[in-house]
Amino acid sequence: MSRPPEPILHLDMDAFYAAVEQRDDPVLAGRPVAVGAASGRGVVAAASYEARAAGVHSAMPMVRARRLCPDLVVVPPRFDRYHEVSDAVMAVLHDVTPLVEPLSLDEAFLDVTGAVGLFGPPPTIGAALRARIRTELALPCSVGVGPTKSVAKLLSGLAKPDGLLHWPTAEVVARLRPLPVGHLWGAGPRTVERLEGYGLTTVGDVADTDRRTLQRLVGEALGAQLHDLARGVDPRPVVPTRPARSVSAEATFDADVDDPAVLDRRLLELAARVARRLRRAGLVARTVTLKVRLADHTDVTRARTLPVPTARTHDVVAAARALLAALRLERARVRLLGVRCSGLRDATDAGPVQPRLLADPGAGEDDPAVDGRWGALDRAADAIADRYGAPAVSWAALLADDDPDDDPDAAPDDRPDDGPGAGPGPAATGTSAVRRSGGT
Amino acid sequence: MKLTVPRQDLADAVAWATRVAGGRAQLPALTGVLLEAADGRLVMRATDLEVTAEVGVDARIEAPGTALLAARLLAQLVARLPDGDVTLADDGERVRIECGRAKFRVRRIPAEDFPTPPALTAEAIEGSVKAHAFSRLVTQVGRAAAAGEDARAVLTGVNLEAADGRLTAAATDTYRLAARSVAFERAVEGAAIVPARALAEVDKAIAAGGGADVTVVLDAGQAQFRVGERTLTTRLVEGPFPNYRSLLPDASEVTVVVERAPLAEALQRAQVVASAAANTPVQLSFSEGGLELAVQNTEAGDASEQLPAEVEGGPLEIAFNPRYLQDGLEAAGTERIRFELRDGLRAAVIRPVAPDGEDADDLTYLLMPMRVS
């Protein structure tokens, strides 16, 4: 079987979070939607194309977005939901090839070299993927097909919204030339400004510039990278990610918090979310890590290894709470809380287990080791959440909450903690919290 | 206050009191060591409210009196004094400390806040234990106690129970349990859960050459240990202690006698591989020929080793947390040890085996095997 000349696909969901919200709630369809916290420091995590038409874009403060677009419907993010939908998208991609490299929740590279015999040439595969995601998931996406990762990614961007672009290898260099330098992967606003300051405004200008000169302008590594990309050179392979190494959730407070009760509530929420995500992925975790960012931006992390790997909300909450209590914050002001579970393994392959001789005294009926009700509670809560959306079942402590600064939906931004191999793609705000190790 | 005392006596006493109770200060007074000079004795006391350490040394008292001095400072200072007699004397707000040509004046801490430990009650029971036996018991049993801040308090303690002329100690972290008894010189009855940390300090006091016997006092809310010149009083951990006696198996299917040191060494070698991934058990296979110890770690590799052993019954395979097994071997301590097993899933017992013509202690180290799927 001959190697197809343009085997790399980049698939990017269009306005992913907003599209999911519009799909799940028909009332939002056709209206300008921004996903993000409505209050305080809230920023736009994603904007629908209707909102983008009014000038709203991601990472924009919500206050400004509202001013630009008075009809804007602000929807609190539901990261659990986006993770679910993302899993479904990635599952579709894996039907074509195991060589799938997710960059975040809503975009991935595919190397379809081995798939053309079954499914036809790469542009056909791209079109088929778009059709399946459209019909099965009712979501729009864009696909770029090219000889390299950078070209494929560039093309999915140019194809947006809801399109597909394919450049034959022979035409890549010529077609790159007239594009503005900002289209090159790695060229951020500062770099673009610098290059334009020296009269390099198009990709062609960069391609024609002496490599050493470019490196002097923007630095050794970036100069070399831009020079290569401008000439269509990009040898990076698609690296399929290994299974998740950790699952985490973080939340930045709208205003720094020193109230232990508020911290505890947010911690509950984060730990519950992480545990739920573990269960959905069919994983159990052995280590729970707490991260606290103080008002002065110093980070404190503490980890605890559990005697038995778990995906039980009760266990993750208990460990996270114990870690927070052990920090003795004494009302230090906290900017961010995070909970991470690592040491993951398949829940069905629980591995060796160290049973106890006797029940943990004092734990009484609450001891999950002797009380299966915690597991049953998780299953019931998951079932309800799957049906009605999270968090349908929660702690009373999280519900009896009328403090506007601690709206549970306020700003739970799941930080991208992708591994080193995830690539330098422009990070969407608030993306995957599933850390993957992309074997670099 | 004015007194003279040999430097070494003072240094040992201050160091011990400071280490036991001078560390965790909440009140300024708790950072201090209280010196009380009277009747030819200098008594030093330090407390962290949980544990109180008291130690006396013979001294030449010229003027009785008391002073509270910063414990760490005093300990460091005395440790560095030249050998010879040390003189301590009031000097207004300070205490003058002189040794040879070295002169210090150390500021007093107001002593009013220094807590007085509650006196022993009339219900207190008292008896004595051979110091070496007590020391051994503490190291054997304390190993099985839970450590760390997040452990339940009752698991950080050692349960002491006096009955029928014996003192029985037990500790468990719920995964393993160690229990043994020693002769208790007086036939009194009582029980108390003592922080394992406090018992470890008693052990150090014994090691420092306290005397031949340890006096054990069990009282409501506190326990006291007196060894030589040193007295350690500790608050008790609130119980109840788990009812562990019901867990001790009354029969076994397979018994194995094996040389302890070769097994411990094989275990340590295997642990190099086991520790590469968390939660990796060590597997023991007992058969007529002896025992095989094996670790399989998909990430790091394998290890296995054959050892001779006297096996009755079997064959049987069982897996343990390597650290818990190691602790059990160390707790038993004898040249040869015995495993008493039922099957691969129920708790296993490790006991010391007496050398010919000697009595072994009655240590029972009970540990729950790991379940390997």
Q: Which architecture of the largest domain in chain A would the CATH scheme give at its second level?
A: 2-Layer Sandwich
- CATH fold label of the largest domain in chain A: Dna Ligase, domain 1
Q: Would you identify the CATH H-level superfamily of the largest domain in chain A? A: DNA polymerase, Y-family, little finger domain
What percentage of residues of chain A falls in helices of 4 or more residues? 25-40%
State the secondary-structure class of chain B.
alpha+beta
Rg of chain A (C-alpha, Å):
24 Å
End-to-end Cα distance of chain B, whole Å, is: 70 Å
Strand content of chain A: 15-25%
Global outline of chain A: globular
Largest interface, C-beta within 8 A: A-B, 24 and 30 residues
CATH superfamily of the largest domain in chain B: DNA Polymerase III, subunit A, domain 2
Number of domains of chain B: 3
Kindly provide the name of the CATH class of the largest domain in chain B.
Alpha Beta
**Assembly state (oligomeric):** heterodimer
Helix run count of chain B: 6
Q: What's the number of extended β-strand segments of chain A? A: 14
CATH class category name of the largest domain in chain A? Alpha Beta
